Amino acid sequence: MSNEAPERVDDDPNVAMQNSAEFNELRTKFRKFVFPLTALFLAWYFLFVLLSVFAKDFMGTRLFGNITWGLTLGLLQFVTTFAITMYYARWADRVFDPAAEALAQKMGGHQ
Description:
74% helix; mainly alpha; two-stranded antiparallel ribbon; single chain
């Protein structure tokens, strides 16, 4: 065991970054983007599940050939997932990552 005094929290660069106005702004920006998008996707997902359980006749209705509403909506779940992923990646590249990089540089570089 070492007899050295533990580093003061005030001297920790990570704590300083977390307490900065820029970090709080970045966290708020991230949450304002991610939380609504997550809520929207979860609502869409649970709608699909609820329709599958409670609206079997609707989900079994054929649109054309052997393609039903259930199959179509199920495949749209995948499309939605990919679209959200691409949308987030573009947003992160354009908005979030540059701001995070600027903050990291201001606080002393990458760790």
